[in-house]
Request: fold
Amino acid sequence: MGTTTKTVPPVTLTQRHLLGIEGMPVTEIEALLARSHFFASVIDGSIPDSDIPQSLAGKTVVNLFFENSTRTRVSFEVAAKKLGGSVLNIAVSGSSVKKGETLIDTATTLNAMHPDILVIRHHAAGAPLLLSRHVDAAVINAGDGRHEHPTQALLDALTISRKFGRIAGLKIAICGDIANSRVARSNLYLLGTLGAELRLVSPATLLPADIDQFGVPVFTDLESGIADCDIVMMLRLQTERMQGREIPSQHEYFNMFGLDEAKLMRAAPQALIMHPGPMNRGVEIDSVIADDIDRSLITTQVEMGVAARMACLEALIVGASI
Amino acid sequence: MRRLFHKARLICPAQALDSKGWLVIDDGLIAETGSGTPTDALLASADEVIDCTGLILGPGLVDMRAETRDPGAEHLETLDTLLAAAAAGGITSLAIQPQTDPVIDNAALIDSLQLRASRRQGPHLYCHGAMSRNLDGTQMAELGMMAASGAVGFSNGHSSIQDTQTMRRILTYAAMLDKPVMHHCEDISLSDGSDMNEGATSTRLGLIGSPIEAETIILERDLQLVRLTGARYHAAHLTTATSVEAVRRAKNEGLPVTADTSAPYFQLNELAVSTYSSAAKLNPPLRTEDDRQAIMAALADGTIDVIASDHVPVNPDMKHLPFSLASCGASGLEVMLVMTLRLVLNDVISWQRAFELLSLAPATILDIPGGSLVVGTEADIVLIDPRTSWIVTGRDFNSLSRITPFEGQPVEGRAVRTIVGGADIFIR
Reply:
């Protein structure tokens, strides 16, 4: 991993859909990452655009977003267009869903228009799985409730491996609102599968039940949790998904669990910072760190998102043609 | 009309009876029973002789907790479909929950439902009156007048009474009326917004979990109020090992406490929802395997007295949704018996214990006729073919509610004839 060549082949997956990282074979994860590296080289200009395979030529990708998102939706759109596909964005707020149409009805209706890939984001965990049972298209989960966000985990792994040349053995702390985070779950599976030394850091009230059974050390103190870590991945405090008052105040949260320069001193000397975005500046992360071009990988993550999604879109189209 | 059933295996826990024998129904009552083969004179005296070779003959099942949606949402379940489904499930008496629209919180509605049911040849229908007006959990409903109209007990459906003083008063008042209070135990501040049991599985699925304490906190509170008030208390659908332990302690202490569970809680665990299968989304939720084992043990050792159908009418509009948006509940009337038979076939309980759980105990708790084959009582009887194999298929249900977490499961044993007051109300 880490080397980029033109010879990396397109990936085929054993599943028709990309619904989550849990249970995905390590070989497929590695193949997707290798292919993502190739596309990343296109994005950074080391491989010319003309070399991009037009794997999605004549194919239709539908972005079906039941939750607002700019970054993920645009990322999928750019990725699909770079591969020659056409993209339809369905803004749910203006659609028949608001008139009471169910997810299955929406799926059936869209299916009749024969899209090739449906990219779905939904506030309910499991919605992409339900959708996948009612459509012929391949379904990509672009985030379902608190469950999974597989392409985010892939782009995070891509970002890390481009920076460090490896993932195995790196000490990575995932910090913040673990209970409400699909990014944490997908990364737990993906980075864990690739051999990273993970740890979770969160206030006790934002830890999901029985998280200690997931085989990763859990900390309720940020400074000891990130001690000697190569990467500190901060999560967004998902106030919109919270059940009640899990924390006393954002003021206390920033004080105890927000990443600032002083706390970051505990991490490895050259530790890098990640955040899936959008950030709550001054809540989970101090702007000084978020904007530190030497430490922050946050913009790189966005860039790598396009490459990782190109690999995923291509894999599902190539897989469907076999 | 004299009907003779012979060559059957007669089972009646009230008489500790389990033997090959015969039974005569005369004028709607159980006239005579005996073991072995009937005499020629007896055979000759019958207007109808029914050969029951290979069949079990026991008291008709008594389901102490089912919900109807008539009145209010007849597209989900009418009184007719409810009773037809019960009959097909071997049930001869059922007590419905007050969760109708309007709520069964007054004597008039009980009169109306019982009158309607009596016009139809089917299982006996009984009503639980609402504990609180409109199930609001604050204002006690007219328990006395409902009792006078035939309410067999009081329940607040799936709306657990949160206010302790209100619960105390209801128990005190029900004790005065000598009627049992059946309570669904759920601390709604702990279960708020939850989709399933809380634990590693809910974490993995990204669903909101409800801890077992949501059940046990209210149960433990209620048991203390029972000690205070002396009311007859029935804990509805126990699902956890901790709840079983609490009820066991209360019984050992001599408190007037009984409890039930339903088939999903002893046949399934929380992994049934691990692919977001909304058919297995129930309230209370399916728990862990350890809990399931504890529930089975409690059924065998007598801590849990009753198996109820827990029938909650639901339709595809309520279920074919992303898991967290789907409704709780499942059809139960037509799987209660067969899922209990699985415990018999697996040697968890005996046949007599099965009829105790399904018939004798609920009849005793509700103080209604039925539950035995005692001579002179009304002939409410079920005939079961224990060897017939079939596959649970919701669309074949008599109920309008055709969603079950047991869909597609191969099962053994089925009611083949259900008899109420000596007359067949169902024949397969």
Notes: Chain A is about 35% helix and 15% strand.
